[in-house]
Amino acid sequence: MKIYTVGGAVRDELLGLPLADRDYVVVGATPAQMIELGFKPVGKDFPVFLHPETHEEYALARTERKTARGYRGFEFHAAPDVTLEQDLARRDLTINAIAKDETGNIIDPFGGGADLKARVLRHVGPAFVEDPVRILRVARFAARLDFAIAPETMRLMREMVANGEADALVAERVWQELSQGLMERQPSRMFRTLAECGALAVVLPELAGQFVGAAGKRTPAALDAAATRGLGLAERFALSMIRADEAAISALCERLRLPQDCRELALLAARYHADIEKSPALQADAVLWLLQNTDALRRPARFMQLLAVCTIDALDAAATSFPAAERLRTALNAAQAVDAGAVAQANREPQRIREQVARARLDAIRRALGAEQSPTKRATKKGKPMIELYTWTTPNGRKVSIMLEELGLPYRAHAINIGQGDQFKPDYVALNPNAKIPSIVDPDGPGGKPYAMMESGAILVYLAGKTGKLLPKSERGKYDALQWLMFQMGHVGPMFGQVHHFLRAAKEPVPYAIERYTKEKDRLYGVLDKRLARHEYLADEYSIADIATYPWVARYEWHKTNLTDFPNVKRWFDAISARPAVQRGMKVPA
Ligand SMILES: N[C@@H](CCC(=O)N[C@@H](CS)C(=O)NCC(=O)O)C(=O)O
Fold first, then answer.
1. Is the CB of residue 456 below 6 angstroms from any atom belonging to ligand 1?
2. Domain total of the chain
3. Helical spans, DSSP H, in 299-433
4. Least confident of 150-159, 215-224, 377-386
5. Residue 413 domain flag
6. What does each C-alpha distance from 552 to 236, 315, 396, 496, 582 come to in angstroms?
7. For the domain that residue 10 is a member of, what is the CATH number?
8. What are the Cα distances from residue 506, in Å, to 328, 493, 556?
9. Does residue 5 have its Cβ closer than 6 Å to ligand 1?
10. Closest ligand 1 atom, CA of 397?
11. Do 96 and 24 fall within a single domain?
């Protein structure tokens, strides 16, 4: 019986790298002999034993025969007559097929030593194509060692992809290799190698877009910078998909069964990195909004990970400071320092506790960030273009003032008193052919030219498009929001409006109309309540659908609704009422 050290331990020793686990091959032994020597059998598919004292792995020399597609489709043959060379021949790369005997002699039948010197990853033999995991392993070794890939090996990898061999890769093996590769010194090399052989588009199609075009320059550099700075796996994975669609991130996480922390951070980074990057320009209320939406107050450690991801994304490896992260850390510290328990105790109206805590946090952030002026004033000083809003103290008007406040866009409100007939004046009808409020004029409209708009729903969609905010970024989320926005425009607004008219403004009581529209209004509350029982907001995240619906529900006393009859609507209503921007928007025009 002869024992050899093999694989990574020999390779790394020759490279002068620190030693990880040692693996051994035993030639000329039977399982019974191993057990007699006190080794513990552990291999399920082929004979592997643990040393009785060191617990290191000792495998009997074996050969392999391909029997089916995929990395499981092998039959093993282990017997005392299998030679060391035969065992080494079944390995993937020459640099992994070097052995060392007990006296320190190197056995290198495939030229692994020369390839180590030349810094080349080269396959051992034609059997390489039999295991698709090898494509991922080569890519991972490229990330680890920064070796070139031998052209003949790259050719084989391309053939494997073209033959559909890579389709047989199972999820857990993909993530196992991907996660190890991400933690290597130069993760970008893994993705470049996979892209070069065509495997990226097949095995990780959701990621492929991140390594071409403009993203293709930024993502690899950011990943390598993350490695230089020693960031963790969740951060590196988030960086690899930071510019991907949220639906693509979810699909990849689902398919490869990624750990929750990786999934959560990747989704947060994709959704909020642009806001975080722009955050130095945000007012205190928008900063609080950002902290709340990223759940920073409850999960500060995860928020720090998010800031680390955004910092790397915004910088190249050499730069050291990212003021946005500094400012958000300051804001988070200030908000965390607010004693929510004390605020709650000092409050006589329990239903207002959330609002009061939010206000206390806002004040703390404002103080910590230094006194800030309102967006309107700031913009005026700097001479930025201002949106003109023509509105009145009604739900349709308030949708737009809330939206403008949420966005922090500079605007000027003009009161169009619809009770006095201002909406019919020719100047106004020139802006809004339907003679209703609200309307806006954006001096910096499409193509940089002034643009006038009517219809509150369309205005909300326009402002969301202009700023990239308050309309979910995922395809699904966007259409969810648009459905509920249309539901508000087509049902909630018109029907609640009829109830208000017949209960408060009709020249004579019309019981039939009151009954008809009240019933319909209650039915609509039921629809909203059901939706909100399963979703925090109408489209999962706070959006223009909520902004459109909120001011109509805020008139619950006008249409004689007891919100406690619709507990989910009430929960949603209270949450939105606590938003400082909503409170400001509801007071426009003053
Ligand atoms: N669908 C329009 C409805 C606008 C609308 O009905 N506005 C009402 C105030 S909430 C109005 O201007 N009423 C004056 C009138 O009818 O003469 C929108 O959402 O913008």
1. yes
2. 4
3. 300-314, 323-336, 340-346, 353-369, 375-382, 395-407, 426-431
4. 377-386
5. yes
6. 44, 44, 8, 7, 13
7. 3.30.460.10
8. 52, 18, 18
9. no
10. 10
11. yes
Say if ligand 1 is within 6 A of residue 455 CB: yes
Question: What secondary structure letter does DSSP report for 488?
Answer: I
Nearest CA to ligand 1 atom 16: 436
Strands 148-149 and 106-107: unpaired
- How far, in Å, is the centroid of ligand 1 from the Cα of 422? 12
Range 83-98 average pLDDT = 96
Tell the residue nearest (CA) to atom 5 of ligand 1.
Answer: 436
Q: Which atom of ligand 1 is nearest to the CA of 424?
A: 17
CATH code assigned at 408:
3.40.30.10
Q: In what order do the strands lie in the sheet with 439-442?
A: 411-415, 387-391, 439-442, 451-454
- Domain residues for the domain of 551 are 475-585
Ligand 1 centroid to Cα of residue 565, in Å, is 28
Q: What confidence category does residue 278 fall into, taking pLDDT thresholds of 50, 70 and 90?
A: confident
Span 451-471, mean pLDDT?
96
Please tell me the distance between residue 492's alpha carbon and the centre of ligand 1 in angstroms.
Answer: 13
Q: How would residue 215 be classed by pLDDT, with cut points 50, 70 and 90?
A: confident
Containing H/E element for 248?
Answer: helix 246-256
Lookup: tokens for 112 = 């692994």
71's tokens: 């990395």
pTM of the model: 0.60
Give the torsion sign (CA, 516, 517, 522, 526): positive
Report whether residue 399 contacts ligand 1, using a CB cutoff of 6 Å.
no
8, 99: one domain: yes
Q: To 5 degrees, how large is the angle CA 427–CA 431–CA 434?
A: 105
Q: How far apart are CA 535 and CA 380, in angstroms?
A: 39
Among 467, 496, 531, where does a domain finish?
Answer: 467
What's the pLDDT at 320? 58
Mean pLDDT of the chain: 91
Percent of the chain with pLDDT over 90: 72
Residue 126: pLDDT over 80: yes
